[in-house]
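Render this sequence as a predicted structure.
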Amino acid sequence: MITTNKRDRQRRLLIHFLPETILLLSILAYFLLPSVVIGYSPLIKYPTECTVIFTVAFTLVQLGVYCFIWSCCKPAQMDEIQFFTCTKPSPSASTGVMICFACYAIMHIACVLFGAPLFQQMEGTSAWAFLTTTLITVPNLVLLGSRPNSLYQVVVCGKFENTTERYLYFQSVGVLLGSWAAAVVIPLDWDRPWQVWPIPCVVGALLGYMVSILTSCIITAKELKTEKVH
């Protein structure tokens, strides 16, 4: 009986973290599969094109995960708030689009203010801004809705009251910190092909995204284990 209960708990944990697993495996596949299949990373050779293509593809993955799989694997009572019931206000599509464009503009301007060329390599800057915008806005808009006040409180102020809001905050911070930290290697005179803009910040954003998901999963798993013990 003990073994059966233990296996049942493990199965529930696997189901609970299935959405995060899909997201992490998708990014790992982007990093590893090209090198295995064709022998080199297209991101190094075609950084802008690869970033845009991956962003579009991963946005579809995120929409599938957050719109369908997330609600099935994570019941509303786990987060102490009914995110997926009729009590949640219906998001406005037009407001969501405006938020995406605003976030893209902020990312692009911030990147230039932090040292990216204003006119040179604008395609690379736009590709990075496109990537970071989708990594941050897609999960927040799907799970929180397009209410600016809610997004501001969670993403900007870091005021979270449940595991989903904490997950979204960690994720947003991870993307930005990862990009910022990775930019350190750009001015170094190592003359490596992966130092070319925007490769370091693209990789940094994705690594920060992955680390934030793993961190959130570890904290949540400990909380779930504690709840079951009590």
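Summary. The chain has one domain: 2-229. Confidence is low (pLDDT under 50) at residues 81-90.
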